[in-house]
């Protein structure tokens, strides 16, 4: 799940100094935020639909074993093959084995966050296979070996000039800054890749338990091509991505595109049930569904199980002021933004990701926009308790908080400490009554702010004087 | 408008105590003007939010119990000049003390009668015109815990709109976080600083010279950033505007 | 233990301690459906919504006029067409008109042997236009419902750069939930697609571009019965 090998603070520092990234993020998140608001305003009873969607997700997870078993049974009844992958290694192993059985050389991929989580491409490449990403944004960053910076628009951090240069250098396309021309070039290039690939690997937006149907939503058409053109289709699905019935799917589809990009529906909503049937002229001859666990079943048993309600719309990213300022790469995870800040330590352990739960001001903008009303701040807090318990606090908090707490429950001593603080801050603050420099670790504050000197008299004293009639 | 429910308790908060006592005095002035008897229970210190938000619930719990004790000697409703502290008491005390059979019911009882200041005036007292006086262009910054924690969105704006002479400008991103977030401002100071710059940019765009809010934490953060950047922007708590009255000419 | 056993048993263990807010024992059921607009309003809404995503809508037209429009659209791109069986396109008189136009309907079948498949795919990729019917339309999103199945190729609405679809007005539904509530058989075939406009992307600086991998042009001919 790691996308970087430098430290969190280095990543953040790098991101915050990238003016172009900042502009691109503001533009993208601003646009999606506006579009989302308009799209939800045009959905009748949007609040009721969101509440209902939450109920669907909650209920499904509360009976996940039942629905997963039902789903698997239905996929098999439709002629598909179901594989169960307890972890990332198992998932990649399964895909490699299928590739081996078919002596496949070329794999074409639709967007799959699960495949990034399991680092499938790395293992396929190591086994000597060609792997091509077919989503335009994913293809662009694949060509330069980068990770997506946004769940919905992975290459948003690139200008069109940069994209043109990348396509020219890596694919030999004529150099241009016109997106239409670039897209036409990529279409032609990928068309051949589609026609020649033996295996198509896709993600799954939702699995429908009652019928064993895979739902894939997209705008470009590469998802349809990935799941139609090659002989073999392998679909990777996180075990939590289920809904019980087609009606439930309809509820989720109404919300997903609106929350993600402000579209009422994405251009293509694909429902796939099994490989092609007798008489069908096209479609894959084999369908493999790989159910990927990789920690989800364990997370289900914890206080942060609610993060599994997520439908991967990206609305929380667009609303999050932290994400808007530092972008996806700074999180260092396949899953960035508010959802990633909870999901990543949940799946990967807080010891590996101690900063993420703290990379938030708990402003709750994410909770406000989440289509299924996931309470991300609650879960960030639970993970902060965990990081604190496991000793990941900085030394000055380990020292300072117990002292502060000790003072707070001793009002006389607290008031004395306030007086001392008053003298100290007024001294440091000088005539301006503002402190411009504090030593580390508090220097973080004074880098971009002054710190106020305490008022000459604390409120409690002024209140006393007022009550005694001694204030002017 | 004295009536049978005309007592309230003031929980001033640690930032009002140390940084902005005039906001606390303004709250008292406004409440007394409305006919309330304002109790100021002794021994109040801090609600414990910084420790709670940092995940140090072991340190936060004693602070919560202490505050509950202080505010439970009287059964009068509690008014807090801070959205985040009010949210802490209302929503997080029961969460923090969920396993404490003695203090959980007390926390719930306290939560049920605790209000942020603007919320109290509009939702409990039932008025949107609490008077006040203002000069110069202002913008309203909506603090996150007040807005999304307590659900208090329109009340402060309604009160502000009725302030005599007030010139309220539109603030882009008024509901976006200023970047304070408690310990976040120090632990993640670079991200916090970046968020602050964006907030300050919006304030400059608005043409306002004063930022009005209901949380001293945010206001202190914004003012500190403005000072560092040399911007002619001051801050003030909503209560301070409401408390101001046209001065009788000097005697 | 198999992968399946490992996963299912961990799930069951976890459900003992899972904190799942708002989880109810009973399945949530269906939300009440919205009152349906009149058929005329649905046509208007369908047109407006599809045009807003760069689809083109023709009609409603009586069958004979619709045939002329379809032939006109197909003729723009050339004589080869990748098509559903004409009876599934659902427009009386179309078969005869296609014949007199000299249209060549390319065999959509992709064989299952490797080299046959490769050759067929290359061939199909050159066809300039696809022709389909639609089992349903959704007014509030401007969507077509394409239920594939025996002899109805997915590629017809996917590979060629242009897609012409015939939709009977009587098959319009107000919205997706209402359509799904009618219990259509959507899992009897390996593929159903809801198509809402031509293929698009905004991956490059959020600038919209059409015709990425799917068709660049989508023409829907509405036929009144």
Q: How does the helix and strand content of chain A classify structurally?
A: alpha/beta
The helix/strand class of chain B is: alpha/beta
What is the count of β-strands of chain B?
A: 8
Most extensive contact:
A-C, 113 and 84 residues
* Uncertain regions spanning at least 5 consecutive residues of chain A: none
Strand line-up of the largest beta sheet of chain B: 2-1-3-4
Overall strand count of chain A: 12
SS strand fraction of chain A: 5-15%
Outline of the structure:
The complex is a heterotrimer of chains A (472), B (251) and C (225). Chain A has 472 residues and is α/β, with parallel strands linked by helices.
Key structural traits:
heterotrimer; A: 472 residues; alpha/beta; six-stranded parallel β-sheet; four-stranded mixed β-sheet; B: 251 residues; four-stranded parallel β-sheet; 8 strands
Structure description:
- Chain A is α/β, with parallel strands linked by helices and 472 residues long.
- Chain A is built from 22 helices and twelve strands.
- In chain A, the strands form three sheets. In chain A, strands 1-10-7-4-2-3 form a six-stranded parallel sheet, with helices on both faces.
- In chain A, a hairpin with a 4-residue loop joins strand 5 (206-208) and strand 6 (213-218).
- Chain B has 251 residues and is α/β, with parallel strands linked by helices.
- Helices cover 51% and strands 11% of the residues of chain B.
- Chain B is built from 13 helices and eight strands.
- A four-stranded parallel sheet of chain B has the order 2-1-3-4, with helices on both faces.
- In chain C, the strands form three sheets. Chain C has a six-stranded parallel sheet with strand order 1-12-7-4-2-3, with helices on both faces. Chain C has a four-stranded mixed sheet with strand order 8-5-6-9. In chain C, strands 10-11 form a two-stranded antiparallel sheet.
- Chain C has helices at residues 3-15, 39-51, 63-77, 86-89, 94-101, 114-124, 176-181, and strands at 56-61, 80-83, 104-105, 129-132, 136-138, 143-147, 162-168, 172-173, 191-195, 200-201, 209-210, 217-223.
- Chain C is built from seven helices and twelve strands.
- Helices cover 31% and strands 22% of the residues of chain C.
- Chain C is globular, with a radius of gyration of 21 Å.
- In chain C, helix 3 (63-77) runs parallel beside helix 5.
């Amino acid at each position: 799940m790691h996308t970087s090998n430098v430290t969190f603070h280095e990543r953040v520092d790098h991101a915050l100094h990238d003016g172009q990234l900042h502009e691109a993020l503001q533009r993208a998140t601003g646009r999606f935020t506006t579009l989302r608001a308009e799209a939800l305003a045009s959905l009748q009873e949007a609040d009721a639909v969101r509440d209902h969607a939450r109920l669907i997700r909650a209920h499904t997870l509360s009976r996940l074993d039942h629905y997963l078993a039902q789903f698997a049974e239905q996929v098999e009844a439709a002629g598909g093959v179901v594989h169960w992958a307890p972890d990332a290694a198992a998932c990649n192993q399964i895909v490699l084995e299928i590739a081996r059985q078919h002596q496949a050389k070329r794999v074409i991929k639709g967007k799959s966050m699960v495949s990034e989580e399991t680092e499938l491409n790395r293992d396929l490449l190591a086994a000597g296979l060609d792997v091509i990403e077919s989503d335009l944004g994913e293809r662009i960053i694949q060509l330069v070996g980068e990770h997506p910076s946004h769940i919905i628009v992975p290459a948003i951090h690139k200008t069109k000039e940069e994209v043109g240069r990348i396509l020219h250098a890596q694919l030999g396309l004529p150099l241009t800054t016109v997106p239409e021309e670039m897209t036409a070039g990529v279409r032609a290039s990928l068309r051949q890749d589609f026609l020649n690939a033996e295996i198509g690997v896709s993600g799954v937006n939702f699995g429908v338990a009652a019928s064993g149907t895979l739902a894939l939503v997209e705008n470009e058409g590469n998802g349809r091509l990935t799941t139609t053109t090659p002989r073999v289709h392998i679909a990777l699905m996180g075990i939590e991505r289920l809904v019980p019935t087609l009606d439930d799917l309809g509820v989720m589809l109404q919300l997903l595109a609106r929350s993600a990009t402000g579209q009422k529906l994405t251009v293509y909503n694909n429902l796939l049930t099994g490989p092609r049937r007798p008489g069908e002229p096209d479609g894959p001859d084999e369908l493999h569904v790989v159910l990927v666990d990789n920690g989800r079943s364990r997370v289900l048993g914890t206080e942060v199980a609610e993060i599994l309600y997520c439908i991967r719309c990206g609305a929380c990213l667009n609303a999050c002021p932290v994400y808007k300022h530092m972008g996806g790469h700074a999180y260092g995870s396949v899953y960035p933004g508010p959802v990633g800040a909870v999901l990543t330590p949940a799946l990967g352990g807080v010891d590996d990701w101690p900063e993420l739960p703290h990379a938030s001001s708990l402003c709750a903008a994410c909770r406000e926009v989440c289509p299924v009303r996931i309470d991300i701040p609650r879960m960030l807090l639970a993970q902060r308790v965990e990081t604190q318990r496991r000793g990941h606090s900085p030394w000055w908090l380990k020292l300072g908080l117990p002292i502060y707490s000790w003072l707070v429950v001793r009002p006389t001593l607290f008031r004395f400490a306030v007086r001392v603080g008053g003298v100290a801050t007024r001294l440091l603050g000088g005539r301006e009554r503002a402190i411009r420099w504090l030593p580390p670790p508090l220097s973080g504050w004074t880098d971009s702010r002054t710190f106020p000197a305490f008022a000459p008299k604390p409120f409690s004293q002024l209140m006393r004087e007022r009550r005694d009639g001694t204030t002017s | 408008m004295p009536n049978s429910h005309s007592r309230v308790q003031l929980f001033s908060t640690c930032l009002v105590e140390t940084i902005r006592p005039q906001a606390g005095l303004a709250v008292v002035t406004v409440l007394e003007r409305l006919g309330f008897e304002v109790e100021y229970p002794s021994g109040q210190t801090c609600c414990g939010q910084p420790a709670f938000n940092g995940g140090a619930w072991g340190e936060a719990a004693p602070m919560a119990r202490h505050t509950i004790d202080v505010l439970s000697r009287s059964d009068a409703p509690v008014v807090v000049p801070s959205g985040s502290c009010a949210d802490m008491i209302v929503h997080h005390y029961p969460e923090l003390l969920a396993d404490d059979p003695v203090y959980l019911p007390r926390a719930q009882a306290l939560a049920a009668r605790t209000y942020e200041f603007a919320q109290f005036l509009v939702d409990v007292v039932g008025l949107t015109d609490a008077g006040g006086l203002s000069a110069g262009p202002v913008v309203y910054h909506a603090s996150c815990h007040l807005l999304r924690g307590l659900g208090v969105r329109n009340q402060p704006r309604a009160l502000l709109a009725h302030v005599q002479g007030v010139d309220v400008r539109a603030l882009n991103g008024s509901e976006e976080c200023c970047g304070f977030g408690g310990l976040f401002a120090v632990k993640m100071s670079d991200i916090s600083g970046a968020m602050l710059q964006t907030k300050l940019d919006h304030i400059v765009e608005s043409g306002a010279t004063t930022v009005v809010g209901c949380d001293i934490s945010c206001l202190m953060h914004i003012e500190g950033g403005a000072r560092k950047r040399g911007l002619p922007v001051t801050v003030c708590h909503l209560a301070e505007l409401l408390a101001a009255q046209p001065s009788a000419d000097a005697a | 233990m198999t992968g399946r056993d490992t996963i299912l048993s961990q799930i069951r263990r976890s459900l003992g301690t899972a904190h799942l807010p708002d989880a109810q024992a009973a399945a949530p059921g269906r939300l009440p459906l919205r009152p349906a607009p009149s058929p005329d309003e649905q046509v208007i809404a369908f047109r407006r919504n599809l045009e807003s995503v760069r689809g083109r809508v023709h009609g409603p037209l009586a069958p004979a006029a619709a045939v002329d429009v379809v032939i006109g659209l197909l003729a723009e791109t050339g004589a080869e067409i990748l098509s559903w069986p004409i009876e599934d396109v659902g427009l009386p008189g179309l078969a005869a008109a296609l014949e007199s136009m000299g249209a060549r309907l390319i065999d959509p079948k992709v064989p299952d042997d490797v080299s046959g498949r490769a050759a067929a795919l290359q061939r199909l990729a050159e066809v300039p236009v696809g022709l389909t019917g639609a089992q349903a339309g959704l007014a509030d999103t401007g969507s077509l419902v394409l239920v594939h199945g025996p002899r109805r190729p997915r590629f017809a609405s996917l590979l060629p750069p242009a897609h012409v679809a015939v939709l009977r007005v009587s098959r319009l539904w107000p919205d997706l939930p209402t359509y799904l509530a009618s219990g259509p058989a959507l899992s009897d075939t390996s593929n159903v697609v809801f198509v809402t406009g031509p293929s698009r992307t905004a991956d490059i600086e959020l600038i919209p571009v059409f015709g990425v991998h799917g068709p660049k042009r989508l023409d829907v001919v509405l036929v009144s019965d």
